[in-house]
Amino acid sequence: MADSPNCDLKSLSPLQLFERVTEQGEKVRALKAGKAPKDEIDAAVRMLLSLKLSYKTTTGQDYQAGLPPKDLVLINNGTTKEEDEDLVDPWNVQTSNAKGVDYDKLIVRFGSSKIDTDLINRIERAIGQKPHHFLRRGIFFSHRDMDQVLDAYENKKPFYLYTGRGPSSQAMHVGHLIPFLFTKWLQEVFDVPLVIQLTDDEKYLWKDMTIEKAHEYARENAKDIIACGFDINKTFIFSDLDYLGTSAGFYKNIVKVQKHVTFNQVKGIFGFTDSDCIGKISFPAIQAAPSFSSSFPQIFNGKENIQCLIPCAIDQDPYFRMTRDVAPRIGQPKPALLHSVFFPALQGAQTKMSASDPNSSIFLTDTPKQIKTKINKHAFSGGRDTIEEHRKYGGNCDVDVSFMYLTFFLEDDDRLEQLKQAYTSGELLTGELKKVLIETMQPLVAAHQERRKQVTDEIVKQFMTPRKLAFEF
To answer: Can you tell me the distance from the alpha carbon of 408 to that of 80, in angstroms, rounded to the nearest whole number?
Structure first.
């Protein structure tokens, strides 16, 4: 967005204003550092002050770097009842809407950009092949600076991928596969390094488990991640409890981030209270550090200017909004992001799944019989109360969990559209749609289990050993 005083600032949301002030502040710092002409710096400063005044007028509060406003626009279905508002943060996802979270409103609230047809077409041109169905179907729906990543790729400049997993249980469910399946595709089509963070330290701080158990879960989850098919020569998986103590570069970046985020800011971003342990308060800097290539000197040869692209669910965005605010102040490029929707619980799209509820999803350890039972018994239906009503009025794919799961895992676009038309018209019954899902998920999970059996402790050790990857920097 151009830094023009003629821009109608009144039309911007609080979060859009916040982003404008942040960007303008970075511009002022860059002009000063580059010893730009005085009149140019003065004009940029005047624009910054104007933006800060508009921000205060709109929100009633002074701008604070790294502390986005609590958005004044509710994420709901046109009501202002607090109980109808969508709740989205790194630990909770709740909505009263059976269709799930309103992602268009979430984009406005978080200040990200929609992945539109133009961006998808540009990705297709860059990689020379059809984009992943997660992109085509809007499963990855929002981004920050993906256009910059494509600029770099088209100009033969390197970038790398970073994603992660909080190992809260020994068994992962199929929803946990979404970022890894997509990241694997990104790694293959762009041919770039990948780092995967296992935040076993986070789970110890947040969950009622021993530090040994958290570390054990990280190793077990690593086997499921490796079973997705990542290239060992291009992928580094690390446990925070292991890696933090061995990498000076990683720890230095953590300390830099910590210095530039105040306690007040981290409380505002993450909702921490005075009763939270100091480990929670300091943890966001640990999740931020892999966004900077200097955290992995063995991979990037100490280079600090390599941009990072982070595929993740949008509930993780607060961590990286903070990171993007800090990055220019510590001389690092801002990480880019690709956001996915939430994978719904079997019981409905009002919440995401819980690893502690075995009936909330299909787990990667489930047998074919367990998969069939869970889908038939627990998958929320968009069908009618009787066969006669269903034949007459049809089913609702927008709330039907079986159809939602097929949107994620049935790769055939034509087949998916046929099912949608048949279910919506009433030709296909709920039981028949569930049967299609069962027949899709049983071989998918079985194949994953077979690949996981081949992942030995030695292979895990190789993936998790800090080392040079198959790239020159």
So the answer is: 32
